[in-house]
Amino acid sequence: MSIRAWQVAVLLTLPCGTACLPAETLADVLRASTVPVRQFSGSDLAQKVTSYAVSNGNPFLLAYYVDDGSDLLQFPLRLIRFDRAKRDLRRADLRDVSVLFRDETLTTCLGSVLDIREYSDTVYIDIHKNPSAGCVIVLSSELKFKTALSGWLLGLVGADYAVLRRSEVHFMSVHPLHLAVLNVQQNQATEVYPYSGDPQRRQFSRLIEPRISKKWCMNHNAQCDPENFDADLSGKVIVNETANLFAFQVQFNVSGFGPAVEKQVPARTVTYVFRERNGQWEHREFDVRQLQRLLGSMSLKDFVTQGSGKAFPPIR
């Protein structure tokens, strides 16, 4: 569990921001987590660290940058992994990591570390670029680089799959939601949402289209594509590792289409369930009423973890 969120919360309560806090050294961070320091040089321990995240369990994980006094982040991104049971210490430096943004533009993964975690011998690092973009760096438990993708990590479906939210262009009239699944063993990402033929998205687009004002769109330099609307996650991705299945809820809204559309088309919530079968991701979608009939008295979380097979037709 990363302590970075706690640090950010503390900073927000301080009127003077980071200036109120003394700069931490690598020695401070390691000793606070009871990590032996004898294998580090004195110069390394004395270095000030910045924009870092810690996972304090077993193994201990740390991803950080050295604060060189310039107020700018600089590669390398430094990594430390300490196996408390085996007393095994590993270190690595990532000197340059880039990803394809929207599969078009190569961009660096230089940014603040939001989170670092290890699951089933794979290390995941979340990097913050801006409110609409990030990077996920994937490494082996030996801290060897495997891959990097543009976006954020949302959940892990066992040891084999990672669910990611793709980065978006920040300054746009709408922010659609794009999700991908990374096959961790093959280092291959597959876009799973949105998908072609989604009846829930099609219905929402049909509500938007006849109410669009071309004049308003031109005056506000808005895209106004009825098939490309705001969609955001409502809550967390829920995972059933045993069934290779995950579910999430999405809220559609018409922000960015003008006041006339906003008054006439209410937001709606749609639930999506994905299941891996024979190397493919099956999917089902449910509006509020359909979901209520499916769940009965169960919560969505209980349904996913206990009775999620009901979301799909029987396998014949």
- Helical amount: 10-25%
Distance between the termini: 41 Å
Structural class: alpha+beta
Query: In total, how many beta strands?
Result: 18
Count of helical regions = 8
Largest sheet: 7 strands, antiparallel
Low-confidence runs (pLDDT<50, min 5 residues)? 1-21
Radius of gyration, whole Å: 22 Å
Overall average residue pLDDT: 89
Order of helices and strands: HHHEEEEEEEEEEEEEHHEEEHEEHH
Report the β-strand fraction as a percent range: 35-45%
Overall geometry comes to globular
The tally of domains stands at: 2
Main sheet strand line-up: 7-8-9-10-11-12-13
Q: How would you describe this structure in keywords?
A:
316 residues, alpha+beta, 2 domains, seven-stranded antiparallel sheet, 8 helices, 39% strand, globular
Compose a concise summary of this entry.
This protein has 316 residues and is an alpha+beta fold. The protein has eight helices and 18 strands. Helices cover 18% and strands 39% of the residues.
Itemize the secondary structure elements and their pairings.
Elements: H1 4-12, H2 26-32, H3 42-46, E1 49-55, E2 60-66, E3 77-83, E4 88-94, E5 98-101, E6 105-108, E7 112-119, E8 122-130, E9 133-140, E10 145-157, E11 161-166, E12 179-183, E13 188-193, H4 199-208, H5 214-219, E14 230-233, E15 238-240, E16 245-253, H6 259-264, E17 268-277, E18 280-286, H7 288-295, H8 300-306
